[in-house]
């Protein structure tokens, strides 16, 4: 009887121990809630939580994250429809804002990057667009940095990878090149 009770106590203590000890990996932050309210952010290392009261609500990476935005079409100032592919590099700077500033900060920055890119493309003609990728990249980074403050995110870089005009326009450009 005594051995069963002591075995039960050992099992309960072991379960409590494993539910209250958290190891946070390097370059990560765990956002902890106590009874549903923000309690703190745990940085890398060993931490103790109060069982059944504290819980890890979010696990947020702190390293630079590349985000491939989906391919999108945009219309230039001279009414040419082009297809764009881009990649965004961002980093979480404020875990609390990233957890509670928006329901999904990754989707929010992706959508903002896409809408800003379409807006910037609409301001330029196709010839200028092909020449001024850097200014477009800088405009998108600037817009993301302004909004990212509330989301706890810093945009490090934005790169337009591919800029593809329509097939018929490509053929016309090729014919003009051959004629010259």
What tags apply to this protein structure?
Tetrahydropterin Synthase, Chain A; 9 strands; alpha+beta; four-stranded antiparallel beta sheet; 180 residues; 2 domains; 6 helices; three-stranded antiparallel beta sheet; elongated
Can you give a write-up of this model?
The chain has 180 residues and is an alpha+beta fold. It has two domains: 61 residues, no CATH class; 115 residues, 2-Layer Sandwich (Tetrahydropterin Synthase, Chain A), CATH 3.30.479. Helix content is 45%, strand content 34%. It contains six helices and nine strands.
Strand-pairing-aware structural class: alpha+beta
Cα Rg: 25 Å
N/C terminus separation: 98 Å
Q: How many individual domains? A: 2
SS elements, strand count: 9
Q: What are the low-pLDDT stretches, counting only 5+ consecutive residues below 50?
A: none
Q: Give the overall shape.
A: elongated
Number of helices: 6
Biggest sheet architecture: 4 strands, antiparallel
Question: Strand fraction band?
Answer: 25-35%
Mean pLDDT: 88
Helix content: 40-55%
Could you spell the SSE succession in H and E letters? HEEEEEEEEHHHHEH
CATH topology of the largest domain: the name is Tetrahydropterin Synthase, Chain A
Let me know the CATH homologous superfamily of the largest domain.
Band 7 domain
Pfam family, one: Band_7
Protein name: Erythrocyte band 7 integral membrane protein, putative
Family: Belongs to the band 7/mec-2 family.
InterPro entries: Band7/mec-2_domain, Band_7, Band_7/SPFH_dom_sf, Stomatin_HflK_fam
